[in-house]
Queue: 2 jobs
Job 1
Amino acid sequence: MSADKETLYKQLADAVVDMDEDQAVATAEAVATAGLDAYEAIEKGLSAGMERAGQLFDEEEYFIPELLMCSDAMYAGMDVLKPHIRQDAVAEKRRVVIGVIQGDTHDIGKNLVKIMLETSGFDVTDLGRDIPPASFVQTAQEIDADIIALSTLMTTTMDGMGEVVRQLNDQGVRDKFKVIVGGGPISQGFADRIGADGYAVNAADAVRLARRLTSPEVAAA
Amino acid sequence: MSLSPKQRLLDTVKKKKVDRPPVICTGGMMNAAIVDVMNESGHTLPEGHFDSELMAAIATDVHRDTGFENLGIPFCMTVEAEVLGSDIDFGTLACEPKIARESFPSVKEVVYRDVAAMLNAGRIHTLAGAAERLAKMNPEVPIIGSVTGPISTAASIVDPMQFLKELRKERDASHRVLDYVSEFLIAFAQTLVESGATAICIGDPTATGEILGPKMFSDYAVTYLNKVIDGIHATGVPVLVHICGEMKAVKPSIPQLHADAISTDAFVNLKLLKQEYPQLTTMGNVSTFLLELGDPDKVARHTEGLVKDGIDIISPACGLSTASPVANIRAMTGIVKNSH
């Protein structure tokens, strides 16, 4: 029985890495039929597969088209398994509000970060692209976010990131959130200058950064 | 006797010996219509996107105030996508136009239209009129018409996330869309040349090694860039191509491009690239961060280094920030002009 379980989890992970949506759905259905723990199947199967896909991306084996197809397979499997998750199995998730700053409609990078954060167990609210700074601040307060993640590809819109930090300061809520930034023209220096809590160079790095910033020690500091 | 800026650029791309490199900024993706210049002249964007006379006036202001040795139009990368059906947000004085919504959810749903008829749509006549006016007034300055590359144009009419996946999943339909987009880009560029453009520059920021990886870059980007370049070459003008990103994943593909000059991002060491592929005419790559945030001295020193390295055409490394101070750009162009 437990060999079966491990085999199914491995099949789930492989389906994700192989970008095989149909296989991911079929295996997820097998998991559900067998009455296995759906939460565990997501974690040890689909998420593990996505993590491997992220590694292949880091190693330049996979590029953005491949990573997007892996994530399609992951979400397809997830859609099957989600209704089977027992509520008591769900740990409280860290919440992230993410979006592309006003003036810019390039969202490939933001979408990758969103996928990788969701894969890693964050609860992500995606505002989309071309988003005014005030919307980030408002949504972060509404959903009681842990992290505000800002993306831009255009140098002309970088100032909007500073504006988010300024508005958080003005409203006296800066300490409630960690602000992270990324995108083509962004650097650690820029993040420091606008008073952001961190900068990530790519989607995998954004996950490491988000984990670090929400770890109990840092969150308490 | 000193060369005219037009002759210097044309000689440079033909690999003839010149007194010093040209210093240019092509327009399009490399738009140089900075806020400083527009505030000074009162000729402003976004209005200038829609009016030939104003567009020509802004290009002339940029040329005069920055010292760039060309006239570059348009000031955005949305002319093509607009004609092909996408919704455009035309931006503001400081913020360049962008795609508000791509017209098609998938490569399989693209509506194919008649290329000749599309040449009467959108802002194509505006650009042609501006090129004509500029050419008439400036016989010695190269007019550079900028065109968005095939991959970026396709990703501006089809939802980009879907498009990138479909490059793998729906190869036939992807090729068909790219072929159609390329046909349109050739016809558009030919219109610009007929109106007086001396050279065409193609910027294709979605066609990078980081996004596509080497295989797809070779299968799609090289194939369709070359198709467009060949189509433009048929009119007799040179084609400059800008490649974004670090380029390391796709470097072996670069010499396969039929371009007359290759422009790169700031990450790329152009001197080394030239050593590796001596046949390339290199263009670049003054850091746009430095141009925005540095001071004139630093800009001049950095630019001088590129001239000493033998870079053939000096140009910003990427799209300029519209907030770049004009003094920094003058420092860049000034040091090149004094370098012989």
Job 2
Amino acid sequence: MLIQQLVNGLFIGSVYALFALGYTLIFGVLDILNLAHASIFMLGAFTALVLVLKGVPLLVAIAGGALAGGLLGVLLDRVAFWPLRRRQAGPLAPLISSIAVGMIYVGAANGIFGPDVRHFPFDVVRTPTITLGQATFTLAQLAIFLGSLALMVALQALLRYTRFGAAVRAVAENPRAAQLVGIDLEAVYAQTFFIASALGAVAGILFALNFNAVSSVMGSSVELKGLAVIILGGMGSIPGSLLGGLLIGLSEDLSVAYLSSNFRDAIVFAILFLVLIIRPTGLLGQRGFRSA
Amino acid sequence: MHRSIRAFFLISSAALLLGGSIPGPARAASGEAAIGAVLDISGSAGAYGDGQKNGLQLGQDYVNKNGRVHIAFDIEDAASQKAQAVNLFQSFTTGGKVGAIVGPTLSSEAFAADPIAVSAGMPVLGISNTANGVTAMGPCVFRNSLTEAAVVPHALKAVIARYKVKTAAIIYGNDDAFTKTDYEVAKSALDAQHIKIVSTQTFSKGDVDFQAQLTSIKAANPDLVFVGALAVEAGHIVADAHTLGIKANIVGGNGLNSPQVYSLSGGAAEGVVVGAAWAIGAQTPGNLDFVQAYRVRFLKDPDQFAAQAFAAAQIMENVLSAAKSFSPSDVCSAMKTMKPVNTVLGTFSFTSNRDASGDGVVLTVHNGKFVGF
Amino acid sequence: MHELVAAYHAHSALLNEIGINALLALSVWVTLACGQLSLGNMGFMAIAAYASVLLVTRGHWPFFGAALTGAAMAAAAGLLLGWPVLRLRGVFLAIATIGFGEIVRIFAINLPFTGGAEGIAGIPQLVTTAIIYSSLALIAFLLWRLTRSRAGRAFAAIAQDEVAASGLGINPAAYKLAAFAIGAFIAGYAGALAAFSSFFISPSDYSFGRAVDVLAFAVAGGIGSVAGPIAGAALLTLLPEWLRFLQNYRDVVNGAILLLVIIFLPQGVWSIVRRRSAR
């Protein structure tokens, strides 16, 4: 049973990690907590669902959902954060404006798609079950786990080895200095939002594919877990969100297995609380991507 | 630019404070009985309120076509929020326009909102409240929804009798009144049958990942798994149990009586047994016509929420045609003396405690459809 | 006059909700005035609500005694929570307090005496609109006096720049802890009022989503004065009721209006009234 629980935990943890990357990237670059991220997670899943129902192949639908998510992220930045940046508002205003955009996105999904839970056609999502020793999982779960890891590695490489990555790191470190050396701040912000939101959308699509359910309220089930992940891993750290995601996933499954499912979420929040008190920078916070 | 926006806010907030607030229920035409309906069409319970809204709309058309009495349901969205349900109950009870209120969707909303109707003498017909004590709140609080206590023991008994069940596991939502009641009812029914409960697991509203709990259940190797959940979570639980290779008989209550249990889980729902208030294939008078009309209009199968809402329209048709007037007190006394009515739920009558009478049905999923067990 | 009475009867639940939301908004505002973003108010609200309900229904205490005891328990919890999290700043503090609120809610689901998910029904209706609004007036007045006092100036100095404030001989830790406790007391008192004006409480009343709503009340109303959070609570509580005619698209417009307020009214909606009267 332990092995099966470990597999369960790693799998759900990888989706949490992918979702939390978006929080951490935007926080790392702009120092804001983007509470609309969960709504983009949800709209990404709806976009992919609509595409699949129109007969688009699954991989193309995932790419389409990611693109839609990225564009919604850029739109979010333009309407909710850019005007506040321009007048140098404090940290509270962007928090509330992101909540407002989240409300608009969720409300729009509820209006367009209705409150029903939708699902993908079963021939699209049904994959063979694999049994390895004592562990059972589906091919889709394995693909989701490996795909999430690959996306995280790709993002880390993008930040470390490309010109764009260098610009992002410079802006995260010190926006004014970055501007002085000729970096277009607004362009970096827009690109950051695009990437963070596209990843959030992919997380939503993978989540929806695995559990085969898409609904306008699906974001609420990961919203708080994502916060726990970035605190545990270290705000602004990409390896941190991977580690944090996997640890949160494992702690959930192991607390169900060996303690009590009644207190599963309380244990997650207790971990979050302890990490904040003992080590507010999180497990890998010091080696964030600002210095990657 | 800024000034005009400021003016806009000033005017709109003034309008809000003075005249705005809740729009009153539409005035009923003469000879037409207005009935308020407080449903969760958005928010976390939106998937259930949506079926209720469809069922009521269909029911209204059906009743008005019959011509015995003219009903106008004023359907308002409580957005799965207790405070909004309370506000709506208050505006309905004081507006002087409606003769009764149908709803609210959740028992937790009923506990907060129904007392307002009780103190105003306004009759309430719950169509999905299943918690203990809802109808005990007042002499005019009724419901047409069979409780879990009425249906779950029958389903468990039937499964235990047919298969050699010695041990059972329970998985239920512990943060929701409905699913928590499921647990209590199932536990006492299993205890009464001397079935050993080998694992008890909980989850939270909105969860989609049940692998951890089900892995623990699998390790305990029960003969039967009772699922105390609403349709969406139940669909996921059934799918995950299948993926993990759990072979035990899966049994549930009213919450599982929804097409979503098989639409969300594919073939995994085959053999699931459900104790419920209504069967989609039941040959009760008008039921198949209702199912057909629902499919034509809403392009999907009705669920039990929709059926109970439709039955509410049929019940109100009889009540209102017997009532002396459409005033709340006359409607309430007509409800108290109501004779058994043919509805899509079967022949329906209220018990002396204003609950729904009957034992419900035991169904199983066969070839992707609910059929008699 | 008769129409006013009728309007009151039709909307008293809504009026009560506005008053309670205004108190909650003030509870966030107190900590914000001291430069701290706390989202743990739902936890404090729950502690006081359950405590006061149990004291009245089982212990047969009078309402005010129970409500003030519950609020005091919430304030004590505020001190206990505030002490370890004081050194956290900005969103880190916010997230820690979210964690606290969720832990309280999960305990409310699982403890033996809270009724679990089924909640506690049949709570006597001991709170009237008059009680809610006189409490609001009293608390708002005391907070307004606080802003004019030495402590209020210390709060503002800490919010502005903590290091500079301690240079002026202000002890930031003490004031921040005080702000935490005051905020927790107000949230707790509001929780007791809410419990005794709504017949029923259950853990889902104290969810994260509501904590965020309350923060939005305070910020949209304007955190520059005591009146701002009250105005924000009134506007944002009325808005969803007022927008009912939009049906399925209600939240879209609701969110859009909140966005417009944040973008175009940096000092909150209350600033409109203020500027008008200053002219």
